[in-house]
Design a protein that fits this description.
3-stranded antiparallel beta sheet, 166 residues, alpha/beta, single chain, elongated, 5-stranded mixed beta sheet
Length: 166
């Protein structure tokens, strides 16, 4: 409901978010999909399913409470992880992981340009579907030339992210 209202009132021109149910007046298109990986300190040499489930985890979310996006994807498979730290930025979460035994499950693109951090990346030992992001806008703005320009700028900015994703 808030997405529709924010786009209708033009409080927001576009929204980049995970797939969600939308009314017919909210237009959307897929932007990219990103595989999940697990970051751990460089001290960790391997990561299996049992170790993943037994470990403490850092969650990144803009919300103050509740499950993070990957928790929903894990729960759909009957898997629950133990989150012990919550923060809002991947940079902070990666720094915490580098200095601890905690794990961070995150989209691969979030670490692609942060190679300087002393973390080791693993494939997720629990299969997690790729994170999908979609671009949303209100139908009333669909034919507006300025609005089309904004959407094109978002597409161009995200285009490199869609290359090389498996």
């Amino acid at each position: 409901p808030r997405l529709r209202a924010d786009l209708w009132t033009r409080r927001l021109d576009v929204v980049l978010d995970v797939p969600q149910p939308t009314p017919p007046e909210v237009m959307h298109e897929p932007m990219f999909a990103d595989a999940f990986c697990v970051a751990a300190s460089r001290r960790r040499r391997q990561l299996g399913r049992d170790a993943y489930l037994a470990a403490g985890h850092v969650a990144v979310s803009s919300r103050r409470q509740g499950p993070a996006m990957e928790d929903y994807l894990l729960a759909a498979q009957g898997v629950e992880r133990r989150v012990v730290v919550r923060c809002r930025r991947y940079e902070t979460a990666l720094a915490i992981v580098a200095a601890s035994d905690l794990l961070l499950t995150l989209p691969r693109q979030q670490v692609a340009h942060r190679a300087a951090l002393p973390v080791r990346l693993f494939r997720s030992p629990v299969p997690i579907p790729p994170m999908q992001l979609r671009l949303y806008w209100h139908r009333q703005s669909d034919d507006d030339p300025a609005h089309r320009w904004i959407r094109d700028q978002v597409r161009r900015a995200l285009a490199p992210r869609s290359r090389g994703i498996r």
